[in-house]
Design a protein that fits this description.
With 219 residues, this protein is of the alpha+beta class. It has 4 helices and 7 strands; from the N terminus they run E-E-H-E-E-H-E-H-E-H-E. 29% of the residues lie in helices and 41% in strands.
């Protein structure tokens, strides 16, 4: 029976954020379907115009989800029973805007969003443009970590590390975002374009994952 050693390697990597992602949701609601859709169209025209005015291109504003649904509410009748009643059509339009991290650009963008009549809900995230680089660094780290453990275990047990027989890795999606939380009151956002941008340095992105390695060993 061939002897083997199985070791789990832990990989870690860090990177400075160089990209900003703004996620926005435009909402419209109306009892009339056509009017709800017209409002949704006006909302996207408004946010697009505002963002183009501060230097973005229309193609920079990506739709990630578009949802139209009917809304009902449970209302109590005179006899005490509840009945579901139609209250209108709701349109949710989810957008994503991605750009190179720059404090002034971020301030101008937030001011453009705040002055939009569509009044979108939004959140801001800091990430990296090249996710492959940080993933590769993490996997190399896991491999180095596993091999070092295997060599130490073999040395301590009086055996020799042989050829690598197998690698087991779960290719799941790793979240590559900074923990930095950036928020601003809507009334303040409108004034940001008129003031010097505050220089911020988002927290470094830290990622980690594991991989399992199997080596042959000999006496």
């Amino acid at each position: 029976m061939n002897k083997t050693i199985t070791v789990k390697g832990i990989g870690k990597a860090t990177a400075a954020p160089d990209c900003v992602v703004i996620y926005m949701t435009l909402k419209s609601r109306n009892l009339n379907y056509q009017l709800a859709m017209e409002e949704a169209a006006n909302n996207i025209d408004s946010i697009t115009s505002n963002l183009i005015a501060v230097g973005f291109d229309k193609k920079d504003i990506k739709t990630t989800d578009f949802d139209v649904r009917t809304l009902y509410e449970s209302r109590k009748k005179k006899d005490g029973h509840y009945q579901s009643e139609f209250v209108g059509y709701e349109v949710d339009h989810d957008l994503q805007l991605r750009f190179d991290f720059d404090s002034k650009t971020l301030s101008n963008t937030l001011a453009a969003i705040a002055s939009c009549v569509a009044n979108p809900n939004f959140r801001i995230a800091f990430t990296v443009k090249d996710k492959t680089a940080i993933n590769d660094e993490m996997l190399r780290s896991a491999t180095t970590n596993a091999r070092r453990k295997a060599e130490v275990l073999c040395e301590a047990s009086g055996t020799k590390l042989g050829e690598l027989l197998a690698i087991d890795y779960n290719w799941g999606e790793i979240s590559i975002y900074s923990n930095t939380h950036y928020s601003m009151d809507e009334d303040c956002m409108c004034m940001t374009a008129q003031l010097p941008a505050i220089e911020i340095e988002p927290e470094e992105i830290s990622v980690s994952d594991t991989a399992t390695f199997v080596w042959a060993i000999s006496d």
